[in-house]
Amino acid sequence: MFVDPDLSLAPIVVGIDGGPGGDAALRWAVQFSQGRGRRLRVVLVVPPSTLPVAAFDAIPLVFEPDPFDAMVVLERCLERVVPERAVREGIEARVVVGTVAERLQAESEQASLLVVGRRSGRRVFGVARRLVTGAACPVVVVPPGAPVAALTPSEETVGRGPRSMAAAAAR
């Protein structure tokens, strides 16, 4: 089996949203990466805001959200989930603007593994489903409140994207 040598050096990317699912994904990724020599990149995707210029104006005004506010959300999540400062300092934190699924799919092209949280329930919907089927690397969908030790990458928890066989072999 061919394994892309660059894939073994690629980071584990974690998509967070500041909620319980994102916290669970980050907690799982931190534990999974420890001892494997993998870097972590935590990504918070902020959608662009669209507001009408005026109530009577038919042309919407699209503006970028304040990245400082989003970075505060990201840093608070890191502090809450990863209390060890030394571990936090080794994590790359990134705020990007766009639609969540599209930006995380783009991040998956430079990742060995993509980890996202599931909002609730037993089924995978929305963004998580789109990532499981369209990401360029394996995807782990972590349910909120799941014990970290209970989740290991397997056929049940890892989505199989186009590069999944090479990425799974590189783990």
Quick overview of this protein structure:
35% of the residues lie in helices and 22% in strands. It contains six helices and eight strands.
Description of the molecule:
With 171 residues, the protein is α/β, with parallel strands linked by helices. It has one domain (7-170): Rossmann fold (3-Layer(aba) Sandwich). The chain is 35% helix and 22% strand. The chain has six helices and eight strands. It has helices spanning 20-33, 67-81, 85-89, 100-108, 126-134, 164-170; strands at 12-16, 40-46, 49-52, 60-63, 91-97, 113-117, 139-142, 158-159. Helix 1 links the parallel strand 1 (12-16) and strand 2. Helix 4 runs parallel beside helix 5. The longest helix has 15 residues, at 67-81. The chain is globular and about 35 Å long. The two termini are 14 Å apart. The model is unreliable at 1-5, 154-160 and 162-171 (pLDDT under 50).
Q: How many structural domains are formed by the residues?
A: 1
- Beta-strand portion reads 15-25%
Number of strands: 8
What is the gyration radius calculated from CA atoms? Answer: 17 Å
Terminus-to-terminus distance:
14 Å
Main sheet, how many strands, which sense, barrel? 6 strands, mixed
Record the strand order, biggest sheet.
5-2-1-6-7-8
Which structural class do the helices and strands define? alpha/beta
Strand-and-helix sequence, N→C?
EHEEEHHEHEHEEH
What's the rounded overall pLDDT mean? 76
Low-confidence stretches: 1-5, 154-160, 162-171
CATH architecture: 3-Layer(aba) Sandwich
Helix tally? 6
Approximately how much helix is present in the residues? Answer: 25-40%
CATH topology: Rossmann fold
In CATH's first tier, which class applies? Alpha Beta
**Cα shape:** globular
